[in-house]
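Mods, move this if it's the wrong board.
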Amino acid sequence: MRTPLVVVTGVDPSAVDNAMLGLSWDLPRAVAVRHLVDPGSQVLTRIVSHAGGVLEREEVPLEHACVTCALREDIVPTLERFGRDSRWSSIVAALPTATEATQLGRILASDHRLARHLRLSGIVTTLATQRLAEDLLGDDLLRERGWHTNPGDDRGVGEVSCAQIEYADVLVLADDPGTEATDLIRTLARPDIQLVIGFDQLDGGELIARRHQHKRATAWYSPELEAELSALGRSHAWRLDLSSPRPFHPERLLDQIERLGTGRHRSRGCFWVPTRPGAALEWSGAGGQLSIGSYRGRSRRTPLTRLLFTGLGSAPAELLTAFEDILLTPTEALVDQRNWNVLEDGLEPWLGDIREVA
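Not the wrong board. Structure tokens:
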């Protein structure tokens, strides 16, 4: 008998705690596992509790205060340990603040040993609603709110929040955020997402009866945007889907990246550059904060550059023009690939040395 597991994520610690509390009380014989990371000391704190009180509180020093280290050194082993314990009918686990659940989802979907004891029922993303649209599309940094996970964490609140929304099965909001913000999160999230207003409205029994659909969630979340986009209909939100088989020109990308990467919108997707033809590259940003890097994508016969933009109001006309300007022109795309065999392309600070990805 596998133990159902509900994973809670969010950037606002108070919202995560409220969701955890509601689910823990709603589920009989549930054990709650809360992990917190101190960005200064690099210490991971594990707090395990149930309806009767705290069972464990332990500090685990980390070599690096990163998701991978936290998962490997304590989060996954703890979940497995309680999944084996027949005293508990379910587990509610909160990941460290501003942590995405994608790595944990991949581990639970691929590790057959864990699958014998744990069943991932759902990913719940919590959202505070006092200034939701601003949080998602603004330029605030996690460190400005005290929500960062390590001294070098320069991520934006919007980028992390949007990514958590895009991978979630259930979104829970403190209260009604209004029509515009609701349209925005529904546009960002999978079409089949469950939206819950009020932490006390989370139905723990319904959650543990479900099963997280890893392939469906990954298809929507993937930089390659593998899921079909649904029509928006009448909405305050806009979506712009730009794609081309041509790569970005590395020099023009460096010179003009702000034309695509800045603005009050969420942007994500994949791209490639002719100087690194075998590398799958990811684009992720929100509110002017942008990250680019390599990821392990599927092998494509034909490389793809595709960016998806989402925002409120009207889509900026400049985005389509900028996208076309940064791409290789049809004439440039006909140049022999050997002409792009260079030692440096200027993208090393973000993508690493060319020789490492050749």
